[in-house]
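User: Could you check the structure of this?
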Amino acid sequence: MDQDDGKGALLDRLGRDPGLCRTCEHLRLLASPRSVFVRCGLADSDPAFPRYPALPTLQCRGYCLQRPSAPR
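Assistant: Sure, the predicted structure tokens are below.
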């Protein structure tokens, strides 16, 4: 995953390995001063996906490998 997008630092603050979510296109991260939460973007449009998946996520039918970000 591209560490320049800021997600890498937030993922490093998680208390556990997020599994597949780490490299998923649908990953959304919510951060407070004390915590970081992994959120599934698919949950916005499909109620079959949990908003906050159990970690580590080892299987997911909605998994989509994150595309590399464009150079700045």
